Amino acid sequence: TTRGNAATYTKAWDRFRTRLAAQASALSAGLTASHFSFNVAKGRCETCSGEGYETVEMQFLADVSLLCPVCQGKRFRPEVLTVKLLGLHVAEILELSIEEALLRFDPKAEPDPALRRALAPLLRVGLGYLTLGQPLSTLSGGEAQRLKLARALSEPARNTLFVIDEPSAGLHPLDVEPVVAALHALCENGGSVVVVEHDLDVIAQADWAIDLGPGGGPD
Fold it and tell me: How far apart (Å, rounded) are the C-alpha atoms in residues 160 and 92?
């Protein structure tokens, strides 16, 4: 949905909200972690319900989205936007790419294990270019598959069966390599992976190949 994004799907946004709520400016203003969610009616802009835009329904044409005249696409109330974490307010954090977010908020000098556990798998499957706030509804089929794969990498895989439909879809051969490495990681962590695939580089990495064609079915 438009309310889901890379940060919320990986649960990295829970960590960002906790860190924002711990800032002195947030504490003095009485803001909690809930105020930094655009899905609940506390700190979000109520004009657009935290969407950042307003949708005008067209009877015979596609709906039109207009920038919210109150928050100007920032999705939050002004008092929430005054709180900054390492120089950025909540709307600016959502505009960062995953790679930029890890570099800024998980430096070697002050590592954030919880944040790295949630976002690092996205780098492993080649999705570091996605922004934290990019709506899930705008992802391609291949990106959505890899996002699910990254979520699986961040959780225990033992005794779990993963069924994946063409994770190589739309990818350059060089981009397939990290995806295959991620599939191997799931197996090494105790899981089992079944992949429906046509890419020969992916098939060549499998322990077993079940060929269903040509003549699959009757033959």
Answer: 37
